[in-house]
Write a structure and sequence with these properties.
2 domains, binds pyridoxal-5'-phosphate, four-stranded antiparallel sheet, 12 helices
Amino acid sequence: MGSFAKLAKRCVETEAPVMVKIQELLRGATDVMSLAQGIVYWQPPETALNKVKEIVWEPATSKYGADDGLPELREALLEKLRRENKLTKSSVMVTAGANQAFVNLVLTLCDAGDSVVMFAPYYFNSFMSFQMTGVTDILVGASNPKTLHPDVDWLEKVLKENNPIPKLVTVVNPGNPSGAFIPKPMLQRISDLCRNAGAWLVVDNTYEYFMYDKMEHYCLEDDHIVNLFSFSKAYGMMGWRVGYIAYPSEADGFHAQLLKVQDNIPICASIIGQRLALYSLEAGPEWIRERVNDLVKNRELLVEAMSPLGEDAVKGGEGAIYLWAKLPDNCSDDFEVVRWLATKHGVAVIPGSASGGPGYIRVSFGGLKEEDTRLAGERLRRGLQELVTDGMVQ
Ligand SMILES: Cc1ncc(COP(=O)(O)O)c(C=O)c1O
């Protein structure tokens, strides 16, 4: 059928998901090792998986649950938020992952036509969530090319001068795709600016446990701050679809409006997924940290693999599972480079332009075990060396 005429403009004008684009790009390519998707290589805690095996026949597992989440899980999460994140005044809603949490928030907090702020390189799904809900005035700030920290001076100006005043500012900490960690005083300044301007601040903490080199994650709490979390990476629960929103208990009407959105999208996160989340919490942060510690070696292997790009080209990796690397100046078509790396050298990465950073690539160090990371790294190194010396020779 010929045209897009009958489809929603909101959707048609939304970017296509980058992973789908990558799959199309790689069609026909064989033996490709992936450093592309943001995943971890481990499965959920064994004890937790064994426990969910026992509850598949319980009738309650197949029924709807409370929109907000299973009371026992919410209780455990409030305790975790208090203990680990020092969030004492937040309420919690369990969602089908942090992506759905973000959509919930956009629908709850923004009207079509509102202005919102994010910083490049940004998390592509957040960008798409704005686009597809009609929040098309997306003001994209730059990040410092050395530190990849958001340009807060620019934010200050925009929150004062833009008409309309942005309704919401969002950051991912530590970042996807940057892997950079925003220091506390900087996030505090962002928060103060938002508060003074009457804007919401949404902080995506999906990678809260993915911190390296003795850096410690933190959260901020205030009446204009919403924090997002995910079970996907920490507990290797990508396919179980469980995340949660910590939102200010004191904000009038927040819960009632959020509930309307939740009731119309998942109704509730899958019950068996929530149960697995609850049992996984028993394994606790130590279980996660043991696995995250192993990623340090992966990061080292891939930093080394990208050395042909030059000393200053590779950034990020302070947190999360990503390195962000600048391609040579004559490689502005990063999609082409990604296709070439996959088809000629058998290794897949994400093109930076999917995150508003053309001429860069995002490389994930979470998805493969050390031995496979080493192999993928060797392919990447060969590819990048050839790219730098001879260009994209077919
Ligand atoms: C920053 C960020 N937020 C959210 C998500 C999605 O998480 P979930 O699986 O919980 O929806 C991802 C996954 O890559 C992510 O990187």
